[in-house]
Amino acid sequence: MEPTAPERYRPTLDDVAERAGVSRATASRVVSGSHPVSERRRSAVMRAVADLHYVPNQAARSLVSRRTGSYALVLPEGMGQVFSEGFFPTLIRGATAELEESDEQLVILLAGSAAGRRRIEQYARGGHVDGVVLASVHDRDPLPGLLAGTGIPVVCSERPYGGVRLPYIGVDNTGGAAAAVRHLRRLGRTRIATVAGPSSTPAGQDRLAAYLRETARGRRRPLVAEADFTVEGGRAAATWLLAEEPRIDGLFAASDLMALGALEALRRAGRRVPEDVAVVGFDDVECARTAVPALTTVHRAIEDLGRQLVRLVQRLAAGEEAGPALVLPTALVLRDSA
Fold first, then answer.
1. Residue 70 burial (CB < 10 Å; 0-12/13-18/19+)?
2. What does the pLDDT average to over 288-311?
C-alpha cells in the first residue's frame, strides 16, 4: 500500500506573530486592517505573511468582524432576460469590477418566482452577505419590502414602489425619452409611435410619460404598444403598430433590445430604416452599435450605474448615511437609424 502523503502544514496567525516578533493581537490588527499599528510592526508582519504564505481564515474573520466580504445582486427577472445581451450583463460587469477593487465578491441571485423571492429573503436574513443591490423593481413586487426588513443594507437601481423607503440610484428616463422623441420631430417625422417598456416598472412608466408629453406638444396622436424589454417583445409590438398605422414614419423603442425587434418587424414589412421609418432606442448597449443600421439611441452609463450602486451599499454597510437619491444623466447618441 502506498504511503499517504503528509498533509501540507498551513501557517497560523501565531506563526506569523512569532516570525515578526510581535504579539498575536498586533499581527491580527495588521492582517485585518482593523486598527492602526506602527509602520515598523506593520512591515514586520507583512514580511512574515509573505515569507510564510499565510492566508487569513475568512470564516474566522467574519465571526469577529460580522462582515462576509460579499454583496448580493438580486435580479427579479426571468433567466432569459438576465443573460441576454443588454442591461443586466453590463450592470453585472460594473458591479463586479467595483467589488474586485476592494477584494470583495458579488453573488448573483435570481428572483423570478415566489419561491426564489423567499429563498433570497432567507439568504439575506441568514447573514450571508453584507448588503443587497436590487437591480430592477416592479409594482406589487413584495421583494423590496421583504429585503427592507432583513436588517442589512439594501439599495435599488430604480425608485421602489408602495411606500417602501430604500435608497436608490436611477437614471434620467424622462429626459432621455423626451430627447429621443424631440429628435424624431426635428427630422420631420409626423407619425411617431413608441414600443413602451412594462408599465409595472419605473423605467417603462417614465419613458412612456415623456413620449406622451412630447407627442401632445406636437399635436400628434399617440401610437403605443407595450412590450417587455426583449427583442421578441419589440418585434411583436412593432408588428402590431404597423398593422394599426401603416404610415408610421418614426418609432421610439424604450430599450435597445426592443428596438432591434422593431428593426426586424420593419424589414419584414418592407419599410426602410431610416428612409421610411426613423428608429431610436434607449440604453446604448453593445448591440446598438453593431445593429444594421447602427442604432441611434439614448446613452445611459450602465456599467457606471453598477459601480455606483456597489459604492452606495458599501457605504451603508460601513455605517454611513445614504444621502439624497442620485439620478444619472442620459445623452442622445446619433447613428444611422435616425
1. middle
2. 95
